[in-house]
Amino acid sequence: MTPHIAAAQSHDDDVFWFGNTLISFRVRSTDSEDGISIIDHWMPYGEAPPLHIHHSQDEYFHVIEGVMRFELDGKIIMARAGDTFVAPKGAPHRFRVESVLGARCLTITRGGDFESMLDEMSRPADSADLPPQRQPTPEMIEALTTACRRSNIDIIGPPLG
Question: Of 14, 19, 103, 126, whose CB has the highest number of CB atoms within 10 Å?
Fold first, then answer.
């Protein structure tokens, strides 16, 4: 049996800006029958998504660089380079990048819901650097909330402070 090499379907040119984050789709959910998605995130210090729930998929975070503070079901967990954090589907979670130089992690999900939301809400990156930092406007928050809802993700609270 010949092993499948994911690099053969590399998405290295699949680089986008999602909010204040640079994301790169390493493996798309359509690349295999199992529907696994692997997305590389490079986030600035202080980056923090709102409290949310994924209803259709677990979300795995593998920290490559930096420190991230996670909240899962009200419990705080610090994750550093080499750590993996799991947010099971149905569990409220959020995080905040605590390292001054930012953080880099892989998110791994099964099925295309999270990936579809990122596709809808991201814009092509002008460079392989972090995007110009900006605070979300009420219109941006509403657009994200609506896109998340379409992807079986509910925003239920504010970012982690």
Answer: 103
